[in-house]
Design brief:
The complex is a heterotrimer of chains A (512), B (476) and C (100).
Chain A: H1 7-24, H2 30-54, E1 63-73, E2 76-84, H3 86-105, H4 113-132, H5 136-145, H6 147-157, H7 162-190, H8 198-206, H9 214-231, H10 240-247, H11 250-275, H12 277-303, H13 308-327, H14 332-363, H15 374-377, H16 379-393, H17 399-414, H18 416-441, H19 458-476, H20 479-499
Antiparallel strand pairs in A: 1-2
Chain B: H1 9-24, H2 36-53, E1 59-60, H3 61-64, E2 66-68, H4 70-97, H5 103-120, H6 124-142, H7 149-180, H8 185-194, H9 200-217, H10 225-232, H11 235-260, H12 265-288, H13 293-314, H14 317-345, H15 360-363, H16 365-379, H17 385-399, H18 403-429, H19 443-461, H20 464-474
Antiparallel strand pairs in B: 1-2
Chain C: H1 4-24, H2 28-53, H3 57-87
Helix pairs in contact in C: 1-2, 2-3
The chains are: A mainly alpha (512), B mainly alpha (476), C mainly alpha (100).
């Protein structure tokens, strides 16, 4: 199959087929259901690695493309158009990588296993679809489809206030993206070629074959931006996030933080910047300001949390602020850093949620005060937590450092002040992370219930080890990743440069 | 006189079978009268053949009274399909409620005749007759549970506002006739085109006609009867009113506005624009607080009429296509949702509050999945027919550069998400209460529901085939 | 000379009386009569226009309206009787089972 037009479609079909199989497995055979989902998600992951090995880092265009007409009626022309470039490649692999791990982490789900696994696989189809679709309508469809399984995952398998959190999540993100649909349609009728093809629209825009008056461009940008800002979430659109994260089951939290938030920043990078460069440039100061506020606000709120899961959730707000800041600094370092940071945040925050989930499985609480001195009882869990936490803080040699460093460097070239403020976020993140580690794992065991806790079992170790390996790899050898992003990111940067004043500081940057 | 029977073959067949059933009723024992439904079904099947015989022909038959064109054929197939579904569910319903009266089927067939005439009429007299045949039948059907106060009340309210609105419509028609000298669609259109200085009488006539149709389609501010009537009427009749009656009035309106008054489009767009906004806003906002699911679906149907109106206001070929597609999508999901409501309602429709749906999703997975698909589609979430319908209708409005209207439509559909989700929440996240009467799903209903679910998903993923049909139908 | 305007004014007055009657009266029978009044004003209009235009279709239309009005009245009275059996009232204010 690989090498044919269908190669990327197959990536969507494997989990889709898995979901179909799950639907026909008898609901009482819990082990079979788990095994089947694990099999299909692992298969998807292994298959997605082929894209990594076959990826051509130098290619200017989209790769693994398939384009077939889907709807050709009257003036509406919608295509099934999928493809990958250096930005989406890694996000797809991040998705397929995290999925089997989250399935493994869902062993604790014992009621309604069949619909749970079904929704997990459906979610995977949706997420991969978001990252590979190159037709605006197709993208919108996948974008919305991801909401349904996530809504059910939170609402059915979540914590005490699950219904509230699920509905809030759904309404916020859906309402945010509806205006995007209006913008897509408007853009369509400005495009004389009359299609929804992202590649073609971007090209025609850059050749001035589609002329958007600046106010129109600004409005379209804002409509897209709102959809993505809710998802990222950029301050002040973040209020759904803590609720959703706290109530969601562990696997859903991991996916939400690990992949779904990236859909927002991916959207900014893939749609907002190339299609509306003037508007992006004009609004960059304001958006960067929001990003910096988010970085600092998220960190400060995380500092005062009494609930570990909420703390990790707010730390996401802070970290995603870095990504947005990097994207809107418009140079190769910053955007590449942002893309890299998306991946490393996906890994480390995903892992933190997994660890918090493992704690919760044992103690059925997220409150920091209920813990204390756990390092004595669960040395392995404490070690993993320490390691992931360091990666999240940005310890040199681990993945978090590379992304944040590139973002700050790039932002500094653009605007030194912004970089200075953003850097304070890193300091704060070190404070809240180390402080929570101290309160949870260090000291003597206060609570008697904590004395009898068991350490990580084999399954849990299997979940964490691949993440740790990848964290080290990304930290020590980032060029594996950066090399493949170069061309694609450079294209985005060139597109922005096309409409901006030439910059004085343009440092040529070569990998690592 | 050019008499072309193929143009009204389906109507003739339905009427004949209806009359036959009427004559048979005295000879059939009461408790077996629901079997007459099969005869009615045969009538509808014959009518399908009737449509097939006239397929592809275009004509202006009976002294320019009846159009025979693609739009008409499309509408006929649509109404016959809706009637088939309603007939099948009402057979089940009558059995369950022990309403052994064959007249039900007769009235249903006559109502269908009325719809077909409305969609194909080429003369305001014909439109009026079609409308009345439809309305009078449905007045009776709405009050069919004569021993129940709710049902009689529904019939009365529907009758009162129906007759009231018909008077407005007729008054408008009289003015249009006076201003243009004809009641025939094409001649009116010619007369309007010939004399561009429009008289006041013409505008008054157009305005009054829109009021009349506004009542029938349930557009704000003429929607007030809808929730009461939909709640009180027997469920199959609620479906008939919500889908077929609304659809017939809407298609007649499409023809009148696009074919008779295209030159006055600026004027009627100015009326429709605020009506669309109000309809969408009122429908969606009022639905938020409903605790009875029938009532909620009534408001939701008002909201959907608003989305259809967005398409109608846009006035371009894509809009007609979008309206036809949306109507079919709307029929699929609304019929489906109401069938589930009927099944869950059980005898005497005792279980129609949203709390009655608590935990249904696990106890009855089939019903849960079906209703979820219909609600998700009604909410307009991708991969369902409802999304595609909205996409086409809204893109038509964008094409006509009605950005404000589209933004309002999107905002109101965001509000709509909440109440559709509420039912899903109670189905999957509520606690199941032990029930006195278990829910039973008869085989025909199970098959219909399965087909409707598959149809909703199919139209959401591969809308092309229907859209091509709609494209042909949209060229008058 | 009685020209078309007089007929139109008369029909408008009759129609308005009908509308006001439907909206303000509480007795269902009187409401039914008011609707008849509205339909009759339509007939007046149609016939007047038909005469002015020298075109018979207006009169044909009027005959259809009369016929249909009769059918409608029959159904309306039937519904009122069903309602009266269930409720024993002809006052619309008491027809209020459903609210919201």
């Amino acid at each position: 199959m690989f090498g044919t037009e269908l190669q990327l479609t197959l990536l969507l079909l494997i989990p889709g087929f898995g979901a179909l199989v799950i639907a026909f497995v008898p609901s009482r055979k819990i082990h079979l259901l788990r095994g089947t989902s694990l099999f299909f998600t692992s298969l998807t992951f292994l298959y997605s690695l082929l894209f990594f090995t076959h990826f051509d880092p130098g290619a200017e265009t989209m790769q693994f493309v398939q384009k077939v007409p889907w709807l050709n009626v009257g003036v509406l022309h919608i295509h099934y158009h999928v493809g990958m470039d250096g930005i989406s490649l890694f996000l797809v692999i991040l998705t397929t990588f995290l999925m089997p791990l989250t399935i493994l982490a869902s062993w604790g789900i014992e009621k309604k296993v069949r619909p749970y696994m079904f929704f997990m696989l459906l979610l995977e189809v949706g997420m991969i679809g978001v990252f590979v679709s190159l037709d605006l309508i197709l993208f919108y469809i996948f974008w919305e489809i991801t909401l349904i399984p996530m809504y059910f995952l939170i609402g059915v398998w979540g914590g005490k206030r699950r219904v509230y959190a699920a509905v809030k999540f759904f309404i916020y993100t859906m309402a945010g993206s509806l205006l995007m649909l209006a913008a897509i349609l408007t853009l369509y009728f400005f495009n004389e070629a009359q299609n929804f093809d992202l590649v073609e629209i971007t090209q025609r825009l850059s050749l001035n074959q589609i002329i958007l008056p600046f106010p129109v461009e600004l409005l379209l940008f804002l409509a897209f931006f709102l959809a993505f800002a809710v998802k990222v979430p950029i301050f002040p659109f973040h209020t759904w996030l803590p609720d959703a994260h706290v109530e969601a089951p562990t696997a859903a939290s991991v996916i939400l933080a690990g992949v779904m938030l990236k859909m927002g920043t991916y959207g900014l990078l893939r749609f907002c910047l190339p299609m509306f460069p003037s508007a992006s440039a004009a609004l960059a100061p304001a958006i960067s300001l929001l990003a910096i506020v988010g970085i600092i606000y998220g960190a400060l709120v995380a500092l005062v949390q009494t609930d570990v899961k909420k703390l990790v959730a707010y730390s996401s707000v802070s970290h995603m602020g870095f990504v947005v800041l990097g994207i809107f600094a418009f140079n190769l370092q910053s955007i590449e850093g942002a893309t890299f940071q998306m991946l490393s945040h996906g890994l480390s925050t995903g892992a933190l949620f997994l660890l918090v989930g493992m704690l919760y499985d044992r103690r059925h609480t997220h409150l920091i005060q209920d813990f204390g001195g756990l390092a004595h009882v669960m040395p392995r869990l404490a070690a993993f937590f320490m390691f992931i936490m360091l990666s999240s803080i940005g310890l040199p040699g681990l993945n978090g450092f590379v992304g944040e460093f590139l973002i700050l460097q790039g932002t500094f070239l653009e605007h030194a002040g912004r970089a200075a403020f953003a850097a304070s976020g890193i300091v704060l993140s070190a404070i809240y992370m180390l402080w929570v580690y101290q309160r949870v794992f260090m000291g003597a065991v206060q609570n008697d219930q904590n004395r009898t806790l068991t350490d990580l079992n084999f399954r849990e170790t299997v979940i964490l080890v691949p993440i740790v390996l990848l964290v080290v790899w990304m930290g020590l050898h980032p060029s594996t990743f950066l090399r493949r992003m170069d061309t694609s990111v450079q294209k985005v940067v060139d597109r922005i440069e096309q409409v901006r004043e030439p910059q004085i500081y343009r440092v040529e940057y070569r990998g690592h | 006189m050019d008499i072309n029977y193929t143009a009204i073959l389906p109507e003739i067949m339905l009427s004949l079978v209806g009359i036959c059933i009427m004559l048979l009723i005295p000879f059939v024992p009461r408790e077996r009268q629901t079997h007459l439904g099969y005869l009615a079904l045969a009538g509808i099947v014959l009518a399908f053949f009737g449509v097939a015989m006239g397929w592809g022909q275009t004509d202006l038959a009976f002294s320019e009274m009846i159009f025979q064109d693609d739009f008409g054929q499309f509408s006929k197939i649509f109404f016959l399909f809706v009637s088939t579904v309603i007939l099948l569910i009402s057979m089940n319903y009558l059995e369950q409620e022990k309403l052994f009266q064959g007249e039900f089927f007769v009235l249903l067939l006559f109502a269908t005749v009325g719809m077909l005439f409305m969609a194909t009429s080429a003369d305001l007299i014909m439109t009026f007759l079609g409308l009345e045949v439809l309305s009078i039948s449905t007045y009776i059907l709405a009050g069919f549970k004569e021993r129940e106060r709710k049902s009689s009340e529904a019939a009365w309210k529907y009758f009162l506002l129906g007759a009231f609105s018909t008077a407005f419509l007729l008054y408008g028609i009289a003015f249009v006739y006076g201003a243009t000298g004809s009641t025939k669609y094409l001649q009116i259109a010619e007369a309007i085109q010939a004399s561009p200085d429009y008289s006041l009488i013409l505008f008054v006539g157009l305005g009054l006609m829109m009021v009349g149709f506004g009542f029938k389609v349930a557009l704000a501010p003429f929607h007030a009867w809808t929730p009461d009537v939909y709640e009180g009427a027997p469920i199959p009749i609620t479906a008939l009113l919500a889908v077929a009656s609304k659809g017939a009035a809407l298609l007649a309106l499409v023809r009148i506005l696009y074919q008779v008054f295209p030159d006055l489009s600026q004027q009627w767009q100015a009326i429709l624009w605020p009506m669309a906004v109000m309809t969408m806003a009122i429908g969606n906002i009022a639905a938020l607080t409903q605790s009875n699911i029938k009532r909620m679906l009534a408001y939701s149907s008002i909201a959907h009429a608003g989305y259809l109106l967005v398409g109608l206001t846009a006035h371009n070929p894509l809009a007609t296509q979008g309206i036809l597609f949306y109507l079919v999508a709307y029929a699929f999901m609304t019929l489906g949702a109401l069938i589930v409501v009927q099944i869950v309602g059980r005898r005497e429709e005792q279980h129609t509050t949203i709390e009655d749906y608590n935990g249904i999703g696990y106890r009855y997975p089939f019903l849960g999945i079906a209703l979820s698909v219909f609600l998700i589609s009604l909410a307009g979430i991708p991969a369902t027919a409802g999304f595609m319908g909205k996409l086409f209708v809204f893109s038509a409005a964008v094409q006509s550069q009605m950005y404000g209207l589209v933004v309002i439509a999107l905002v109101t559909s965001a509000i709509g998400l909440y109440y559709y989700l509420r039912v899903i929440v109670s189905m999957y996240m509520g606690e199941f209460k032990t029930e006195k009467i278990p829910i039973t799903i008869s085989m025909p209903l199970r098959i219909i529901l399965t087909l409707l679910v598959l149809g909703t998903l199919y139209l959401g993923i591969l809308p092309g085939s229907l859209l091509n049909l709609a494209e042909e139908a949209a060229s008058f | 000379m009685v020209d078309i305007t007089h007929y139109l004014v008369l029909s408008t007055i009759v129609f308005s009386i009908g509308v006001v009657g439907v909206l303000t009266r509480r007795n269902v029978i009187i409401i039914l009569m008011s609707i008849e009044l509205m339909l009759n004003s339509v007939n007046l209009n149609l016939v007047a226009f038909s005469d002015q235009l020298q075109d018979p279709s207006g009169q044909v239309f009027a005959i259809f309206v009369i016929t249909v009005a009769a059918a409608e009245a029959a159904v309306g009275l039937g519904i009122i009787i069903a309602l009266f059996r269930n409720k024993e009232t002809v006052n619309v204010d008491e027809i209020d089972l459903m609210r919201g």
